[in-house]
Protein: Roadblock/LC7 domain-containing protein
Organism: Streptomyces guryensis
Amino acid sequence: MIQQRANFDWMLKDLADGVPGIEMIVVLSADGLRIARYGGDPDAADRVAAACAGLQSLAGAVAHEIPGSDGRMKLVIIEINGGYFYLMAAGANAYLAVLSDVVAEPGLMSNRMRDLVVRIGAHLTSPPRRNGQTV
């Protein structure tokens, strides 16, 4: 597990170095626990991870209303004053979240995030938990 987190560091740094304007990258479980982060402080990353759990649930609920959809959220982009927020499915029960300033180009960002997920998607997973314990 320690080696896996060390691998996350360079993988997330690679994304940050490849797209100008990234402020924070967070890998999180579906239940909102931070798995890894790059940039920002740990408390902010924990808050982002917790908020993302609700957002991915909401996106999934909306996806069920689209005819022919399997109800799974793939990518959410929110433009906010001063930047963008991206949330992408990144493996079984895991998500990749990025906060960026306005310099970051949304098309480039989503493509680089998708590339990262494809390369390391098997490592970006979080086993299901019951009562706080891994099942």
Observations:
- Helices lie at 2-18, 42-63, 106-120.
